[in-house]
Design a protein that fits this description.
Pfam families: Lactamase_B. GO terms for molecular function: hydrolase activity; metal ion binding. Residues 190-211 are annotated as: Disordered. Residues 13-193 form the Metallo-beta-lactamase domain. This protein has one domain (3-210): Metallo-beta-lactamase, Chain A (4-Layer Sandwich), CATH 3.60.15. A hairpin with a 4-residue loop joins β9 (138-142) and β10. The protein has helices at residues 35-45, 65-72, 89-92, 169-180, 199-205, and strands at 3-9, 14-20, 25-29, 48-53, 76-79, 110-112, 117-120, 123-129, 138-142, 147-151, 154-155, 158-159, 188-191. It has five helices and 13 strands. The chain is an alpha/beta fold and 211 residues long. The longest helix is centred in the last third of the chain and has 12 residues, at 169-180. The strands form three sheets. It has a six-stranded mixed sheet, covered by helices on one side. Helices cover 20% and strands 29% of the residues.
Length: 211
């Protein structure tokens, strides 16, 4: 049984998820900022990270990537369609806000393409390319434990914004309906911001999915 720890980090309280198993190994999803808080949790729980996985490359999901990658000597995974986002503020969204510094992160170590699944150590997950919020958004589904990390594709009662670089509302809704709402209805969906939800809850109550 996998364990899920969530930290709300950075200027917009982005959810960073740390998924761990019985062997004290873990993977880190979307370390958006405040690397020290992530390191403190890993030390406190005696966890050894194996990789950093990014649901997408907007600034609020990547701020602690380089510091953690260097400290733990672990690879970073990102969809290849966002190859240019990590180093370009105009694409990762940080250039849109005068109050923010320009976020620039080194290239990913591993590029996700069209593979249907991914295995990292003891962690096995199915991959769904869920573009719309961004061109390379990926959702990571753990079928045995009945949960998915969905980034900013779908929220409890809402959907991801589509006014940033290469966003598309039509494509976003298609991704949600074809990849996330088709999961078993009680699957826990863990988004990039806010509380978890389920396909059943969103089908019944999400106003954006009635359009």
């Amino acid at each position: 049984m996998l364990k899920i720890d969530r930290l709300e980090l950075g200027p917009v309280q982005t959810n960073c998820y740390i998924i761990s198993g019985e062997g004290k190994q873990c993977i880190i999803f979307d370390p958006g900022e405040e690397a020290g808080k992530i390191q403190d949790l890993l030390k406190r729980k005696q966890l050894t990270p194996l990789a950093i996985l990014l649901t997408h490359a907007h600034f609020d999901h990547i701020g602690a990537v380089d510091e953690l990658r260097e400290k733990y000597k672990i690879p970073v995974y990102l969809h290849h369609k966002e190859r240019d986002f990590l180093g370009r503020p105009n694409l990762n969204g940080s250039g849109k806000y005068a109050a923010l510094p320009d976020y620039r992160v080194a290239d990913a170590d591993e590029w996700i393409t069209d593979e249907p699944s991914l295995e990292i150590g003891p962690f096995n997950m199915e991959l769904f390319h869920t573009p719309g919020h961004s061109p390379g958004s990926v959702s990571f589904y753990f079928p045995e434990d009945r949960f998915a990390i969905v980034g900013d594709t779908l929220f409890s009662g809402s959907i991801g914004r589509t006014d940033l670089a290469e966003g598309s509302e039509q494509l976003l809704l298609k991704s949600i309906r074809e990849s996330l709402l088709t999961l078993p209805e009680e699957t826990f969906l863990f988004p990039g911001h806010g509380p978890e939800t389920t396909p059943k809850q969103e089908q019944q109550h999400n106003p954006f999915l009635r359009m």
